[in-house]
Amino acid sequence: MATKIHIESVTKEFRTLGNTHVAVDDLTLDIPEGSFTTFVGPSGCGKTTTLRMLAGLETPTSGSIQFGETDVTDLPPQERNVSMVFQSIALYPHMSVRENIGYGLKIHGVPTAERNERIDEAAEVLQIEEQLEKMPAELSGGQQQRVALGGAFVQDPDVLLLDEPMSDLDAKLKSDLRVEIQRLHQELDTTVVYVTHDQTEAMTMSDQVVLLREGELAQVDPPKQLFDYPNSDYVAQFIGMPSTNVIDCTVETGGGTTVLSGSDISVPLPADIETIQSEHVKLGIRPQYLDVGTTGDYSFSLDVEVIETLGTESVVHGRLDDGSKFDVVSANVDAVSAGDQLDVSFDFSDVFIFDQAGETILFGAEHTKEAESAPTGSSQ
Questions:
Q1: Which residue from 91, 166, 257, 321 lies 20 to 30 Å from 185 (Cα-Cα)?
Q2: Are residue 182 and residue 273 in the same domain, yes or no?
Q3: What mean pLDDT is predicted for residues 146-156?
Q4: d(C-alpha 251, C-alpha 278), whole Å
Q5: What b/e readout covers 121-140, taking b as 16+ CB neighbours within 10 angstroms?
Q6: What percent of the chain has pLDDT over 90?
Q7: Which residue among 211, 227, 243 closes a domain?
Q8: Given pLDDT bands bounded at 50, 70 and 90, which one contains residue 228?
Q9: What residues form DSSP beta bridges with 209?
C-alpha cells in the first residue's frame, strides 16, 4: 500500500581520514503518497545517499524520516516494506528468472502456490512470461532489468526505490523501459522514488522532481513548473537540454528607462517593472525560446560554430561578439552553415532575470501574463 514520506531536517555526514564530508545537508521534503518522485542532480549531490537512508541502508546523522505516521529513521530495511532496484542488475546467475523474481518472497516464507501466482502476474505485466524458465545469462540487458524490477514489484512494497536502474542500458532500451516503468507505476499501489543523473528520465517520468545541489535542496516541483519557473540560474541551467543561455548584464538606468546590457544584447525593461536594485544581473534565455530572424522584441547576431541536426529541429552552437557561448534550438536553420552569422530574436516573455547570487528575481512570462490580464480602465 502506497505511503507518504516525510524527510525532516535530515543531514548525513561521512568521516574519511579525519575529514568530515556532508553528503546531505538539512534536507526537508514531502513525497506524496502514490507519487513518482525523482531525485536528480550531478554526481556527488546526495541523491543516492538520500535513497539509501530511505531504504534503511544508511542512518541519518541528524533529522528524521517518516513513512506515513511511522518514524522509520532507525528501523532496519526489513521492517520498512521497501523494495530497491540498484544500478547494477543484481541477479543470481545460478537461478532461473522465476527463482530470481520470487527469491524475496521465498525468504519471507510466502507459500509456493501464492509465490508462483505473484511471479506469473509480475511477469505478465513486465512482458517476460516466456523468459521465466531461462537463466539470466540467456537474457538481453533490458530483459535482465525487467527481471530485477519484477523481483521488487512482486513483493508489493509500500515504497519502491530505484537507483539509476537504466544507466547501463542503451538509448533504445532506456526509452522502452521509461514507458514500462511509468505503466507499472500506474498499475501498482506504491510510492516510487527514483534516482537518476539523466534529466530526460526525470522530466518525462515524474510527478515531481527534486533537484539537489551539493547535498541541499535546489528546487522541488512538477517537471513543467521546474522548466518554466526555475528559482535560480543553477536550476535553469541544469534542467533543459541544451542548457539555458545565461549572460552577465549591467543594469543601466536613465531617462526613465532601465536597460539590461550584456555582450551585444540589449534588453529595455517594460516601464511597469519596478527598478532593479542592483548594478549587475544575469539574463537567462532558453535555446528553445529563441526565434531565427528578427521578428521578436529583441534581436542580435551570433557566429555559428557547430550545427547538430536532431531530426525535426537542430541545435546551433555559436558565440556572441565577446566570445560567450550561445545555443539556439530551431527547425529553421537548413540554409545555415558553420561560419555564418545568424540573426536571432526573443520576446520579454522568454527571459529569466537572476540576481548576482543566481536567485531568480523576475520571470518574463509571469510579468507578461500579469500585464495582459491587468484591467485597462473604462472609457467615458
A1: 91
A2: no
A3: 85
A4: 7
A5: ebbebbebeebbeebbeebe
A6: 59
A7: 227
A8: very high
A9: 38, 221
User: How far apart are the C-alpha atoms of 356 and 306, rounded to whole Å?
Assistant: 30
DSSP character string of 279-317: SEEEEEE-GGG-EESS-SSEEEEEEEEEEEE-SSSEEEE
Same domain flag for 280 and 363: yes
Same domain for 215 and 239, yes or no, is no
**Mean pLDDT for the chain?**
89
Residues paired with residue 282 on neighbouring β-strands, in sequence order: 248, 354
**pLDDT tens, position by position, 68-91:** 999 999 999 989 989 888 877 778
What's the Rg (C-alpha) of the chain?
Answer: 25
* Residue 159, φ and ψ in degrees, nearest 5: -130, 130
Structural domain that includes position 299 = 234-373
CATH number of the domain bearing residue 86: 3.40.50.300
Q: Which residue has the cell 502476474?
A: 121
Q: Do residues 185 and 287 share a domain?
A: no
Q: Are residues 89 and 180 in the same domain?
A: yes
Q: What is the pLDDT of residues 99-122, one digit of tens each?
A: 999 988 888 888 999 999 989 988
Local confidence band at 371 (pLDDT 50, 70, 90 cut-offs): low
Question: Residue 377 — pLDDT band, cuts 50, 70, 90?
Answer: very low
Listed range (98-112, 270-284, 321-335) with the worst mean pLDDT: 270-284
Angstrom distance (rounded) from CA 316 to CA 307: 5
- Shared-domain flag, residues 145 and 65: yes
**Residues 199 and 247 reside in one and the same domain:** no
Q: Cα(30)–Cα(314) distance, rounded to whole angstroms?
A: 39
223 occurs within a structural domain: yes
Both 177 and 265 in one domain: the answer is no
Beginning with the edge strand found earlier in the chain, give each strand of the sheet holding 360-363 in spatial order: 265-268, 257-262, 245-254, 280-285, 351-354, 360-363
Count the domains in the chain. Answer: 2
Mean pLDDT throughout 40-56?
Answer: 94
Count of alpha carbons within 13 angstroms of residue 183, beta-carbon side? 12
Does 23 have pLDDT greater than 80?
yes
CATH number, domain of 294, equals 2.40.50.140
